[in-house]
Amino acid sequence: MGLFNVTHPAFFLLAGIPGLESAQFWLAGPLCVMYAVALGGNTVVLQAVRAEPRLHQPMCYFLSMLSFSAMAMSMATLPTVLRTFCLSARTIDFDACLIQMFLIHCFSVMESGILLAMSFDHYVAICDPLRYATVLTNEVIAGMGLAVTAQSFIILFPLPFLIQRLPICRSNVLSHSYCLHPDMMKMACADITINIVYGLFALIFTIGMDLLFIFLSYVLILHSVMAIASHEECIKALNTCVSHILAVFAFYVPMIGVSMVHRFGKNVPGFIHVLLSNNYLFVPPVLNPLIYSAKTKEIRRAIVHMFHCIKM
């Protein structure tokens, strides 16, 4: 069947909270607060790193990339989530849904790749500190950022076209207040084997491999730290990794929870699906700036100094 002969709905209907439609309006306040914290907090981190020369170092550059991807994710989902919960405007055009789907998956993969780059930063800093400055130069950091961006774009670029080739005729009601590839392909009344295989390949090759290498990097870090004779130095070395470990959990745990419910939670109530999907959406962008500003002394001081200058 040719691409231009495929039947598509003019729009999709986004889901609120099944069974709790009357209470959706009251979620507008918390959702707006979460978006404000996510956008404001990550903007503050980016501005602090830009303005403070002492933060012009590899870890803070990677943190800036993480904050940017988190902000981009929030901006990609903000229009449909707030329209669904605040205005009860649940429709989204088919083409707009494809674009949003691509952006959400793309920025998710970017965030995962940046977390892997940050784990490499910690590995070099702890396991080979004498070569840290020569290994993680500005050119290398920029190259890693471009590689992560290019990988996410190239691997996920086919997804909208894989959906566009399918006739959508089973339903046009999505399971979330935003568009995801697994959600959209289930509505097709045609063979979706290619979508399933390619989606699984993209997931394993990007997020799955990133998580594996993050785990291996921490195995090597722990092996190196255990060889340190001084207990105080051992604790100090591990303490530098706490923020990154918390960021890894904040990103991967909600994502794994959503994936597990999608695949095995057919009897789970609908509002559980929605709450877990919104955790996946909000937890990393909201928590990352809070984690790093609370656990990293230099960033905390830069933020305080920045606000002091603004007040003056």
Automatic annotation (TrEMBL):
SUPFAM superfamilies: Family A G protein-coupled receptor-like. Its main location: membrane. The chain crosses the membrane at residues 25-49, 61-82, 94-120, 140-163, 211-229, 241-264, 270-291. CDD domains: 7tmA_OR51-like. It is found in: Membrane. It is a multi-pass membrane protein. GO terms for biological process: cellular response to lipid. GO terms for cellular component: plasma membrane. PANTHER family: OLFACTORY RECEPTOR 51I2 (PTHR26450:SF112), OLFACTORY RECEPTOR 56B1-RELATED (PTHR26450). Putative odorant or sperm cell receptor. This is G-protein coupled receptors family 1 profile domain-containing protein.
